[in-house]
Amino acid sequence: MQRRTVIKLLGSSMMGGSTTLTGCTRLNPSSPSSTTNQPGASNTVKMVTKDQQSFFDPIGLFVDPGETITFVMKSGNHSATAYHRRYDLAEETRIPKKADPFDSGVIIEQGKTFKHTFDTKGTYDYYCIPHKTMGMIARLVVGKPGGPAKGSMPPDGTVPTSQQIVNKGAVSYKQFNESR
Ligand SMILES: [Cu+2]
Known about the structure:
Layout: H1 2-27, H2 31-35, E1 44-50, E2 53-57, E3 60-63, E4 67-73, E5 81-82, E6 113-118, E7 122-127, E8 137-142, H3 162-168, E9 170-171, H4 173-178
Parallel strand pairs: 1-4, 3-8
Antiparallel strand pairs: 1-2, 3-9, 4-6, 5-7, 7-8
The structure holds copper (II) ion.
């Protein structure tokens, strides 16, 4: 009776052991890249309509130069569009001089994503085409603050300061509203 229990335990622990080893081998290569991210920050910005409010979340995000941000359509109809004079609604340019402007166009399908890679350092302000005048705006800092948006607020409302974004890595929409 006792002996059979021991054998059973040995058997199951051996099987468990081999499973764990396989898992380790697969997981190891991905762990270095996940530790280079800022604590608690990810490179995803959600576009949301909830309780009659439309917003980007986080409203402020820091990334390193060369990183890609994924904008995800959660609910509603939205765009992620840089304040750049090339776009009709942007009354001023609020991204660094040498930066590539970006515009997702209005996205209506839930779950759809738009990606943009940010190579030029500085402060980037952007808006949502349908909700710009209602203050659906947000800010990114790539590497370090700079450019025309660095020390001022967009014409459509307020976003976290460049320094707040540098300090926190990511400022959620909820956090930002509670601090105002
Ligand atoms: Cu919107």
